[in-house]
């Protein structure tokens, strides 16, 4: 059984960036539902011996279209939200250090340019979706965006996501209403760069 990421902080700990009700609804309801539905789809597909990464990278091997869709949507929702909640923290903010800082500068010129580019991807994603910072096996960094619950793994990029921005309305609408760019800008105050760096190093 796939387990939902458990928050190591209280639901109000991310305020004022993310309000308590949003965390309770986003993590406690949306994420929990994706997790439950993914587990059911995995069991129905006979894939209980596979990792979520293996399942998402090999969706084309699932012949049943309805089951494949359930795995894509709920497996993506499970994976994406695990990453999102793992990489935000009340102790977040600032800028990355060490190897990740070097790689961001190498790929984008500066942290500010990286922030500008990923924010533009997140703000420009039409409808629900995500913006991603990912790394390949050689350690090179990439930015991308995806619709709904797709991610770089399910899209077949061979890249490992290490940080994401959730731009589904349930991630921000209770507090920010239709001001998505305000949410994106504020989110950087809670990005846990230590967690992101650890994911980069362990990709």
Report on the structure:
- It is built from eight helices and three strands, in the order αααααβββααα.
- It is mainly α and 203 residues long.
- The protein folds into two domains: 67 residues, Orthogonal Bundle (Helix Hairpins); 104 residues, minor pseudopilin epsh fold (3-Layer(bab) Sandwich).
- A three-stranded antiparallel β-sheet has the order 2-1-3, sandwiched between helices.
- Strand 1 and strand 2 form a beta hairpin.
- Helix 1 packs antiparallel against helix 3.
Sheet with the most strands, sense and barrel status: 3 strands, antiparallel
Number of E-state strands? 3
CATH superfamily descriptor of the largest domain: Iron/manganese superoxide dismutase, C-terminal domain
The assigned CATH architecture of the largest domain is 3-Layer(bab) Sandwich
As a percent range, the share of helical residues equals 40-55%
In what range is the share of β-strand residues? Answer: 5-15%
CATH class of the largest domain: Alpha Beta
- What is Rg? 16 Å
CATH topology-level name of the largest domain: minor pseudopilin epsh fold
**Mean of the pLDDT scores?**
98
Strand arrangement, largest sheet?
2-1-3
Class by SSE composition: mainly alpha
Low-confidence parts, pLDDT < 50 over ≥5 residues? none
Give the overall shape: globular
The number of helices is: 8
- Our measurement of the CA-to-CA distance between the termini, rounded to an integer number of angstroms, reads 22 Å
Counted up, domains total 2
